Structures are given as C-alpha cells and as structure tokens.
Amino acid sequence: MIATVIKKIYDYFFEPACALDLGVSRFLFFGIIFLLYLREPFSLWGKTPEVYYQLEPNPIFDYMNIPVFSPEIMGILGFVWLTSLLFSSIGFLTRLSTALAFITGAYLVGITKSFGHPPHTMFLATIIIGVLAVSYCGDAFSVDNLIRRKGWLRPVESRIAEGEYRWPIRLIWILIALAFCAAGVSKIRNSGVEWITSGYIASLFVYHGFTGNRSFPVFSWLPLWIANKPFLNFTLAAVTVIIEAGAPLVLFHPYLRIILLPMLFMMIVFFWVSMGIPFPDMLATFVFWIPWNNLAERFHLLKNTLDAGYAD
C-alpha cells in the first residue's frame, strides 16, 4: 500500500509533460507581475521614516535584522527586479533572470509589506517565482529556446520523460489550493460559524461602501445594496467559506477543477468589483491551471514554432 501511494505521488509530480504549459504560464505570470509593479516608486520606500518600519516588520526581516536601504539603492533594486521580471517573462537568460527576480522580489515585497499592517498580497506570487527559478521554465515559449534552435546555444536534452515540466506546475497548484484553503479554515477557526451567520460580511460591504480601501468599488452603489440583503449576505459568506476551504479538491480530478476553479476566480473578481479589494497577483496565478499545450494542439497554434524539439 505504501509503495502504491508513493508511486501515485511520484506520478502526480513527475508524469511526462510537454514544456509548453510551463513556458506559456511563465510568460503570462511574470508579465502580469511586471505590469503590476511597473510604476511602483521603490526609491520612496527608502525615504519612509524608520519608525513606521518598526511598527510591524516582516517577521523574517525582523529576525534577520534586514534593513531598509537608502532611496538610491532601493531604486536600483527596483530597476533590477523589473528588468529580471521582464526577462523572465520573455524567457531571456531565464535561469539567471528568474533567480534575480526571486531574490530581489523577496526583499522588495518583504520591505513594502512591512510598514504597519502588511496585506497578504504578493507573498504567494513570490513563492511561485522561487519555484519557477529552480525549474526549466525557459525551455519553451522563450527567447532562449529560439536562440537554442538557431544553434547559438548548446542544445539541451528532452526533459519530458523526467517530469521536469510537470512538477513545477503541480507544486504551484498545491500552493494555490493551500492558500485558498488556509483563508477558509482561518475564518472558521477564528470566528466559527458566526463568520457566516453574524452578518460580518455585511459590515465589510458597508465599510468599503463608505470608505473604500486600496481602491474604490467599481460600482459605488453595489456594496451598500448588497449589505441591505441579509439572505444574500448569508449566502455569499457561506459560499466563500465552502469554496475556499474546499479548494484542495481541485488537485484530485479534472471535473472538480472545472467546477471549483471558475468559482474561486469569480469570487476574487466579485470582491474586487463590489468592495474594491484587488488581488491581481492571485488572479495571475490562475494561468498555471490552463492546459496551454492542449489548446495549442486543438487550434493548431504555437506548437510547431515555439515548442519544437520538446513535443516527442
């Protein structure tokens, strides 16, 4: 029985897979993160008074006594991060650019989320960047692959049989599912069923309807309208907890993914539209669930030109 379980786990992570799924996901994911932070004034974080940083720094940064650098250094690090994100997206010097993206991104994201109460955004995306940095995500749909096919770089052996293109996506699936599950379990663990029955979610709609948060709701009337519908609030709260806590089910069967993934995606979009709470980094992670290779084969796109040498 133990041997069977080990084999199933091994097959789950290292089943032979084409490189295109990982390559296209890399291109879109890094590209979205690049656009999200393109106008971020990193140098200004170096000018923020240190007292604000001491209020609630990132626990790891606090333990390791990692400082906030000067505005000049913060600006340079920001430029290096954006450049590495762009290079990672297009797949140019992929191993180096993804490693730089992870190292500089881990510092910059950790710093920018350490002033006051840190919002839980971009932390999952940073871990995903780390996973991609140790994978062969640049073997397809990349500038590196085009250069390699021209003979300017040493060709690499096919890594399909070794599952090198499967395990990064499957590991990222698990990270995403656990992130959603942790959110649902946390609601029940800390508040119990009262998170659903007490009307707490209605108070959130009222709060964001009057004050806004990181951005205002798309429709200013919508949060207050929802807050005045008790049954709708109860339903939204219950559905939110159920689909978040049940997110790991998407790992076990394609049919469950077809049902739950759109629900999770629409849940994030709904709270963005209705409360003005954006989670674009979480939305970006959904690119890893799309079977790009199957779509390419079905519509006869991309396959022959961008994944040559890795299909057989």
Question: Can you lay out the helices and strands and say which pair or pack?
Answer:
Blueprint: H1 2-14, H2 20-36, H3 42-45, H4 50-53, H5 59-64, H6 71-90, H7 94-112, H8 123-133, H9 143-149, H10 167-191, H11 194-197, H12 200-211, H13 222-227, H14 230-245, H15 254-275, H16 280-284, H17 292-299, H18 303-306
Helix pairs in contact: 2-6, 6-7, 7-8, 8-10, 10-14
* Amount of helix: 55-70%
Q: How many DSSP H or I helices?
A: 18
Strand content: under 5%
Strand tally: 0
Shape, per Cα inertia axes? globular
Span from first to last CA? 33 Å
Uncertain segments are: 303-312
Oligomer description: single chain
Largest sheet: none
Rg over CA atoms, rounded to whole Å, is 22 Å
Query: Please, what is the average pLDDT?
Result: 83
- Element pattern in H and E: HHHHHHHHHHHHHHHHHH
